[in-house]
Amino acid sequence: MSLLLAFLTMGTTLSVAQTDGQPSVRLPRFISSSMVLQRGDTARIWGWGEAGKQVKVQFLKQNYVTRVDEQGKWQVAIPTTKAKMVGGPYTMQINELKLENIYVGDVWLCSGQSNMDLHCNRLEDLYKQEFDTERNPAIHLIQFARTPTIEDPQDDVAAFGGFYPWEDMTPEHVGHWSGISYFFAKEMYRATGVPQGIINASMGGSDILAWCSPQVLAEQAPVSVTDRARLLTPGYLQRNAEINRECGRVYNRLYEEQDPGLKEQWMKADLDDSDWETVHPFDPNIGAFGSFPWVGSLWFRKEFFVPDSLVGRDSLLRLGCLIDADVCYINGQQVGSTGYQYPPRKYKLQPNFLKAGRNVLCIRLKTYGAPEKFVKDKPYRVLFKGGDAIDLLGNFRMKRGVLMPPQPGVEGVNNGRASALYSNMIHPILPYRVAGILWYQGETNAGRPEEYGRLLPAMITDWRKSFGNVPALVFTLANFMERHTDANYYGGWALLREAQRQSVLKLDNAALITMTDLGEWNDIHPLNKKEAARRAALQMRQLRGEKRLISEGPVVESVRYEGRKALVTFRLAEGDFLCVAPATEQHTSQGIIRTSGTLQGFKLAGEDGVYRWAEAKILPKEKGANVQVVELSAQGVAAPKGVRYGWDDDPLVTLYGSTGLPAASFEIK
Question: In this structure, which CATH number among 3.40.50.620, 2.40.30.10, 3.40.140.80, 2.60.120.260 belongs to the domain 257-403?
Answer without folding.
Answer: 2.60.120.260
